[in-house]
Amino acid sequence: MKTQVLLENIQVSDLFESLSSAQKRLVLHVFSETLRALTSSFLRRGFTWLLPVVTSKATDPLWPDPVASIEARPELELYGERVRLTQSMILHKQLLVAAGYEKVFVLSPNVRVERRDRAKTGRHAYEFTQLDFEVKGAKREDIFRLVEGVLSEVVEHLEECCEKQLLELGAELEKFRAPFKVYRMKELEEKYGPDWETLASIESSEPFWVTDIPREFYDYEDLERGEWHNYDLILPEGYGEVLSGAEREWQYDKIAYKMRRDGVSMDSYRYYLELAKRGVLVPSAGAGIGVERLVLWLTKRSHIAEVQPFPRIPGIVTPL
Ligand code: ATP
Ligand code: ASP
Ligand code: MG
Fold first, then answer.
1. Does the predicted TM-score (pTM) go above 0.90?
2. Which residues does residue 70 pair with via DSSP β-bridges, in sequence order?
3. How confident is the model at residue 17 (pLDDT cuts 50, 70, 90)?
């Protein structure tokens, strides 16, 4: 379905019609089975599954971001205190690991008020869910192997449970070989220019890793070598990024230095910084998988609205 047609179709009056369509039921069945396979796979690997927080005084700043896209950072007042809606649970994950939950994951709803023009990318919603996980003491390669294993199991499960539904959707299941290829962001930028994510994704027929991406203070940066120990997983065929993650900063001096350097308000992270100063944080690595984007790719839809029961498209607020 063409994005423009789809955007017109989900204008308000057709929301219920879209929800009742046979196609949406097929997609949401595959969604449900993808969640079953994802969560089972992490549980089998010894992860603890915890529930998310939706409000918090400290959430992901989503800054600095080379392709900043956030129009507003909603706050509300609770019991006389200002709190933010969760943009990601990265800081909570670090504290969970520090508190002894050595392998942990959360299905975490994120509210990000994306710029309206992002409705056209087909992969941005203003509410979505990450399967956000963190592992104490892990390194980049540990996370690569973990994610490749989990994705293989998801595809195997869908082959067993959902062959008929996927066939009806015209979605051939992905065959991919692990380990996935790994590129540095700079080499892709040199080859494709600033829109490397989309262009490299269109050209590729398998998922691939991208490392060394300058971004938020909590991703580990080797200041001497000028390298970031972080990564994105990019899906093929133009589906783009489905996961971001990193090895983490845990030392107070470095975190404080990077916050000052990047103009992040230290006041907003006072408690997190206090804990870092007390030496509570520990080395870890993790990532967040955008579950709508994963299903978008698996079901070969063209817009994220097609995989959300109640679409949350930038710029369009529906009555439900
Ligand atoms: P993008 O560059 O595509 O806007 P991001 O790098 O800002 O995404 P992250 O902060 O890395 O996003 O979020 C972790 C994961 O959550 C992403 O890899 C993606 O799968 C998913 N995600 C992020 N933003 C959105 C969104 N607006 N709608 C749907 N999924 C999203
Ligand atoms: N979930 C991501 C991570 O683990 C952070 C983010 O959502 O921005 O690094
Ligand atoms: Mg990202």
1. yes
2. 114
3. confident
